[in-house]
Amino acid sequence: MPEELKNVVIVGANSSMSVIQSIHKKLPQTHRIVLIEANEYAFFPPAALRAGVAPSWENQVVASLDKVFGEKSRHVLIKGTKAINFDDKSVKVDKTTKLGDNIPYDILLLATGSNYAFPCRPDTQSMEIKDHLKTMQDEFKKAQKVVIVGGGPLGVEMAGELCERYTDKEVTLVHSQGDLCGKEVGLHNELHKQLTKLGANIVLNERVDNIKEINFGYGDERTIKTTSGKELQADYIFNAMGTKPNVSLVQAFEESLISDKGLVKVNDKLLVDSPKLGRVFAMGDIVDVDELKTFVNAKRHSSYIATNILSLSTGKEASKKYSTGPTIMAVAVGMKGGAIRLGCLSFGAWAGSFKGRTLFTDIFQNTYKPLD
Questions:
Q1: At the topology level of CATH, where does 6-38+80-116+243-324 sit?
Q2: pTM confidence score
Q3: Label partner for 62 (CA 20 to 30 A): which of 254, 340, 363, 368?
């Protein structure tokens, strides 16, 4: 009988595809990739806000996973299936698959991302996601007074999408800090100027006082009260209050592997920092690395992890040490505006529109074309 293949199990398709592209042809014949994705499809969060506002954009943020591995490929796709826990030998999933419900691994990569409010995180595992995005588009079209709670990149980009498309709506952004996207990013002045020019009302250094009482989404007009006593009326309240890294798998394995920041502790090879888990990598939003949690940095993790996976699969040690790069953040303000931070430099609308025109959905769609 042929020797059983060893599994390189990857949990989460979104940020891990660069790793898969790098290793799928280079892995020794003794190994195969087993990609476990909770959804029935691939999803692209960087363009999800526009997909919740602009008709037809729901098609740009969803892609089929079915042809990533060819019919004759030894690599395996398991979609519509959630990883529910793991140990030092296997990953347990929530349903019986072609490999069973307890999938052994030689190497494991956790790329579970962050939990966002819809639409940046899908609210369904099925292809009904497109219908849900269309419903959101219709609700924004009907709304007259929109309040966005949170002035990070999500809040800024949603305000830009709405103000650019709907000049007749009242759009207010409430931010608890004094700088949009945070002082450390250094893009506040440019973003504030562009949003104000588009007609957005920006309320800074204010928190929503009745946050526990309000219902997010579309509905009857209701009142938002800020900490200074301001009262804002809204028939659509959008939650842009940031993200929560999805560290539950590691937390369930061992609570002490979660840092004070709520992130997974990793060593300089991006291996989970535990002597029990010498062949388990983590990447993207969930890792405790001193850098911004961005799509760019997740891509940066990929090249290091791919090299180290190939080393482990051929009997060598993981030796490529991760080093952070320059600060890079691009924030779109609609299709024509935005701002970019690149190291110590910042650029305005002409550079921001480089992201805003397509939101890189063309790259996303190409990512899921057949690899074999």
A1: FAD/NAD(P)-binding domain (3.50.50)
A2: 0.94
A3: 340
